[in-house]
Amino acid sequence: MSHYKHLTPSEREKIYLLHAQNYSLSFIANSIGRNKSTVSRELTRNSNKDRYSPSAAQAAYARRRKQCKPQLKLSDPALYEYVRDRFLKHQWSPEQIAGRLSLENTDQSVSYATIYRAIYAGIFDTKEQRASHGNRGAIRQLRHRGKTRQTKDHLEKRGKIPISHAIADRSAEANKRCRLGDWEADTVIVKKAGPCLVTLTDRKSRFLLSRKAEKKASVEVRDAMIQCLTGQPCFSITPDRGKEFARHGEVSEALNQVPFYFPLPHHPWQRGTNENTNGLLREYFPKGFDLRKVTDTSIQNKVDELNKRPRKCLGFKTPYEIYYSITLHLT
Fold it and tell me: In this protein, which residues make up the domain named Integrase catalytic (predicted)?
């Protein structure tokens, strides 16, 4: 551990006065309690044409001190604006931002830890957010916003429906995510007694299909699922056990007898791909949002944006790139 201390302005003043009176370096060093080499180095480094000025020496020291400190990554305006845009406007996570920059081998790079520190330090907050004691600023844009999850003892109160196949019977190809066309299904309610979003997520690519249903009922959900999956590769569908999927047999018949596999009760992690995607979708349509004011085109635009967001589980490629086997340029 180093106990070295930099020279102070008052010490530089003493060096100047004693040096001007032609005292030896040893005498000057003993007078200020420093090593002789410290005084010699100070006079050599900070003298101009054999003239030593304590004020000029202190200013030169301050400049060197500032330059030797590492520059903050986000002090680069271009990188700062890129991170801010992807985080605040496009809801990319810090890992997605850092991973995509690395994947595309850009000149800019930043770690996700640096982005998290910047978020918690308030670098991306507006003046109004900083002035408010109740507004947590950009931290609220993080994925979970500090919300708690349901406990394992949570009681599912939704009605029971007949099931065609248990998830234990699902094929190995679907379980191992070896192919496109194995879908997980659910509905997302943003406002009670209103429209809902029917969501279907491909297990391999994480590609999302979604359509608005006028209400969370089996007929409307059935029609939305058929519209979403018509023309898409479809080998299996794994929904939850909600009553809105009671007409799954009619969906199966309309889609060339595609089988439905139902998870065990209170086991949402058995269709975790869709659960996670629904959480991402809620960034655009939070609880309380009125879907009646949103057009189908606007919903599709948000779905497209989500499908073109890089994912860590895909090596920071996007679901769109995996599903369509193409490469995008996003940075």
Answer: 158-327
Cβ atoms 164, 257 nearer than 8 A: no
User: Residue 146, by phi and psi: left (phi above 0), alpha (psi -120 to 50) or beta?
Assistant: left
pLDDT digits (tens, 9 = 90+) for 166-197: 999 999 999 999 999 999 999 998 887 789 99
| Residue 175 buriedness (CB in 10 A; 0-12 / 13-18 / 19+) | middle
Confidence of residue 146 (pLDDT cuts 50, 70, 90): very low
Residue 328 and residue 4: Cα distance in Å, rounded? 53
The closest of 182, 188, 267, 254 to 225, measured between CA atoms, is: 254
Is 10 in a helix, a strand, or coil? helix
- How many CA atoms lie within 13 Å of 240's alpha carbon, on the beta-carbon side? 22
**Count of residues in the chain:** 331
Distance set, CA 45 to CA 15, 35, 172, 181, 326 (Å): 13, 16, 73, 71, 59
In sequence order, the β-bridge partners of residue 200 are 185, 209
Q: What share of the chain is helix, strand, coil (3-state, %, to 5)?
A: 50, 10, 40
Q: What is the DSSP letter of 260?
A: B
Encoded amino acid at 83, one letter: V
Q: Quickly count: other Cβ atoms within 10 Å of residue 112's Cβ.
A: 15
